[in-house]
Give the backbone structure.
Amino acid sequence: MDSKGCRRAATFSSFHTARSQAPASWIGPSFNRVASADTRLRLNPRWFFQGQAAVSDTEPIDGEPLRDATYSANLSRDSRGFSYQLDYTDIGKDFRTTLGFIPRTDIRQATQFMSYRWRPKGGAFLSYGPNSFVQATWDHKGELQDWTVRYPFEVNLKGPTGAFVRRTESMERFGGIEFREHENLIVFFTSYLRWMDVNVFTASGARPNFYPAAGALPFLANFRDAQVSLTFRPVSGLLLDETYIYSHLGSRPDADPKRTIFDNHIVRSRVNYQFTREWSLRAIFDYNAVLPNPSLVALDRTKHLSADVLLTYLIHPGTALYVGYTDGYDSLAIDPVSGLVPIRNPTTSTGRQFFVKTSYLFRF
């Protein structure tokens, strides 16, 4: 520990290289080399700093060699009351890592998250308080690519029961178009009754239609999302799950006439019964309907219904017997001339399977 009370964690460097030797009939060899160094500093019992720098050197089979760097820094504080996190990431346009995963390059991104929780010692409230999330991303030319500001508030009660509300303002650039978006979100959950769990989610706002009809540009649209999940435990060993998910995208109020872009309905029922410690039966029924307006969105109209039944005899992990059956139906029909053609209801069987699987774990 130094004179300022700052304990420094060990700093280390890493290096890896990936190299491929192509056959003689190909163009030639290639490689990707990445070297990095990182550190973690404990500034005091609550505050920590982490940083990393990496460089890459890539020679593809075809094309020019690529050399670039990436940097990241994180400042964080964690406690039961106040938590804070500040992140900065800089990834060069030509940075590559064959043995890793870089979803996006040519960015400079700053993110800040804060939360505060009051925790009363008595009463119905366990905790409550706000969050704050801010993010902005630029490219290396200095052009703003996207930004997000979120202000949630969370309440947790005994039961357990809780609620989460959030307002989001954001902007993103897609296909050279700048979209100004917003979202209002509400989440509620409760397990107040021992035999039932309830989860409800609803959100509305504005987001882009990323898949417009052929010849059209992406455009901003209104959305509504909702989900209701119910879990029942009426008797010992029996578990029932019911879930409904709804997504809607529609034209904005200034559109004339106002039209639906698509509706998506997902219904799932799951039943699980534990006969004994070894024997159990599980059944899942799914329904998924995508109902698009083909003049506004590049989606196919589909309805899918599936059933899945599984009988399990489990002696212990590694030693088990499984007997299962699956069947799927789609809103398609076979026409001798046109081939597969859409129909109104999912009445055509498109996949049926019966299987038996067993495994045995040898113990020595």
Summary: The chain has one domain: 77-359. Residues 1-13, 20-26 have pLDDT under 50 and may be disordered. Residues 77-359 form one domain. The longest strand covers residues 260-274.
